[in-house]
Amino acid sequence: MRVGVLTGGGDCPGLNAVIRGVVRRGIQDYGIELVGFRDGWRGPLEADTMPLDITAVRGILPRGGTILGSSRTNPFKESGPGRTGVERIKDNMAGLGVDALVVIGGEDTLGAAARLNEAGIPVVGVPKTIDNDLGATDYTFGFDTAVNIAMEAIDRLHTTAESHHRALIVEVMGRHAGWIALHAGLAGGANVILIPERPFDIDKVISYVEHRFQTRYAPIVVVAEGAHPQHEELALQSGQLDAFGHVRLGGVGQYLAGEIEKRTGKEARCTVLGHIQRGGTPTAFDRVLATRFGLHAIEAVHDEAFGNMVALRGTEIVRVPLIEATRELKLVPVERYAEAEVFFG
């Protein structure tokens, strides 16, 4: 059996650990030959491959990013002369002797994988997103690393905020789900946490900030990039769409800094963590989870359990249908946000 592996969407700490787990178990336990497709769905669309043997995965466990490269290529929007993207992938897999795919990605990548599986391409999925917003798994690898990076930044910003008696706003990733903001804000002792699931009242935010200024400490506001005020629309940084139709978000941190300065008379600065959150060395938790996902993904391939994704439920790795994994996003529940509100102000 020959199996292709690809990583799609944004890079994420732990991707290399998954690849390593797939390769080591696939070769050692099942005698499977592995081949890597470069740059997400572009690889199988263009038959762009690299060898994946045990030598290729030595030393990659602590490395961030992905040795396979990634992209946001959408196979359903790619077509060649007389062929759809699906037909190109089928033809290239047949030409390379690849029997199945292990697809490591988030909502968009796994959504495409589910459609390709329905079209007759055998696929097993591995959930990947620092946003932790895939509903079929308790946690996704990369999330713990992103939270720790954001928490460390917040820890450092506290002293600067207090030294200069200014408000500091930390904008973190989170388009539709505020898990990073919630966890990093709680762990870092933020005075306000704003998430996409809960449109915020700017007057209440200002009240929290003013209350904090009355102490000897300075306010830290953590905001997810997709958070927005209740009664007004924020301008986007860019109107451009990616291959999956997502517009680039941004600007909420600067908006908050401007409103705080205007309404309180105090200095406010915004720090956008951006891609720092998803780069670099993964935490121990993410290395272990990603490794286990890789081991169980190639086991699913061996069992011909195609159309499934591996997922974490409690402490066990289970298989769930790909279609279930991408049906709906896992959002922050009201009661979880209420726990954080205890510490606002």
From TrEMBL:
Note whether Transcription occurs among the keywords.
no
The record lists Mg(2+) as bound by E107
Q: Which residues form the Phosphofructokinase domain?
A: 2-301
Reactions this protein catalyses:
beta-D-fructose 6-phosphate + diphosphate = beta-D-fructose 1,6-bisphosphate + phosphate + H(+)
Marked site positions, Important for catalytic activity and substrate specificity = D108
Q: Which family does it belong to?
A: Belongs to the phosphofructokinase type A (PFKA) family. Mixed-substrate PFK group III subfamily.
Name of this protein = Pyrophosphate--fructose 6-phosphate 1-phosphotransferase
Please report the organism this UniProt entry assigns to the protein: Trebonia kvetii
**Lineage of the source organism?**
Bacteria, Bacillati, Actinomycetota, Actinomycetes, Streptosporangiales
